[in-house]
Amino acid sequence: MGPQDGTPCDNISTRRRLRRLQVMSNSGLFAFALIECGLVILLLAEFNIYVDPEGASVVFRSGVPVTMVGLDVTRECILTANHVKGLEAGGDALSQAAARIARNDLERRRQAGRTGSPGRAMHDPLVVATFIDRAVVRLREYFVAVETQGELTAGETVGYGEVPLRQSAPLKDSPTLSEAASATFVPITNVAVAVDPARFFRMFIARLSGGLDCTSSDTQGAAR
User: Fold this and answer.
1) Where are the domains of the chain?
2) Which positions ≥6 away from 11 have C-beta within 8 Å?
3) Which one from 123, 134, 138, 140 is the annotated catalytic residue?
4) Residue 39 forms beta bridges with which residues?
5) pLDDT, tens digit, for every residue of 123-182?
6) Helix or strand holding residue 69 (H, E)
7) Full-prediction pTM beyond 0.70?
8) Topology of 3-77+122-202 in CATH?
9) Is 83 a catalytic residue?
């Protein structure tokens, strides 16, 4: 739910019908770097949050339980040629179609010279997977706030495990979000801090191949 699919993040009528939300965004607990034109650029805001920080702030303060799966976790689940072979081995038409799409995508990445990663990060699929099997990730509860007033950091997400000790000086006639957080501090956002990539890909390939997914009863392996 967000700007890319045309659903406002702060749609109140929708919010009243929600029991919980899964969100793919920056984890808020780290800064990741891009190297562009010889410069290292630190990104504190994931795109979906960056383009609508005010709406995202409403979501995180709505009281609806949120599971937040950040890019630091999704980037641990990399679709490679070996996973494509697993899809190709399935006899289901869906797995064959998925395999063709995935192989073409990997080939385009290779032709474009994208050698920094062996494959494609599974951002949205991992978020969907947490609906089916929450054990695919390791979760920790945080109070998550979204920066909406920062001149250089709009859209940055910050996770508090405890009530923040230091309050930023408010703008004129404008209380800070951290002040409000201290009064109503409830860490109800489950933030993914680790993932079990093998467990995820077993489920991913099994589901697309029409096979039985046994990950929910699999106790082997731990999210890293």
Assistant:
1) 3-77+122-202, 79-119
2) none
3) 123
4) 36
5) 999 999 998 999 999 999 888 888 888 777 788 888 777 776 655 555 555 555 555 555
6) strand 66-70
7) yes
8) Inosine-uridine Nucleoside N-ribohydrolase; Chain A (3.90.245)
9) no
